[in-house]
Amino acid sequence: MESYKAQTGIHPVSFRPNWDELPISQIMDNMQPYRPPGKISDYQKEFDTVATERSNTKICRIAAQRTSCKELNRIIRAFYPFDYISFILLPKGVGYPTHTDKRGCNINFVRGPAAPITVGGVSYQLDRFFMNPKIPHSVEKHAVGRFTMMITWDNDSYEDIHERLVRNGWL
């Protein structure tokens, strides 16, 4: 098994969502073309590079609050406090070029086959991971679409959330 250290910027997460208990069709019905949070003029606020060009990517964001879905509530309780959950659909044959994000950190849960993610020049094949999005990273094009649930901390530091996740047994 690979060794993950804080410097790598990516760590497997032990928590596993029950995808069958999530309202995927309802989420898909509410997806919109990808736009970063806020005004369109704030496009560069979230991204530092050409990753703002999210070709055909769709997204649905939900607040970190109680819902009518038991599985979403379980996920929220496990990681709260955080800022929001995003559900992101990256179409087949589309990748994300190398980029950095300005948010503090995030956990990604990938449904189905996980396209490799490259962080700091190293490729990882993980379906659940905590990462430091300020380290250059990319997602390779894949033969199938990539559906990701991403828990986001916009302003908390990677180091602080890493410490909390270790203390709570998720890393």
How would you describe the overall organization of this protein?
The protein has 171 residues and is an alpha+beta fold. The protein has a single domain (6-167), classed as Sandwich (Jelly Rolls). 18% of the residues lie in helices and 29% in strands. It is built from 4 helices and 11 strands, in the order βαβαβαββββββββα. It has helices at residues 24-29, 43-46, 70-79, 158-167, and strands at residues 10-12, 32-33, 58-63, 84-90, 96-99, 105-111, 117-119, 122-124, 128-131, 137-139, 146-153. The chain has a 7-stranded antiparallel sheet. The chain has a 4-stranded antiparallel sheet with strand order 5-10-7-8, with no helix packed on it. The longest helix has 10 residues, at 70-79. The protein is globular, with a radius of gyration of 15 Å. The model is unreliable at 43-53 (pLDDT under 50).
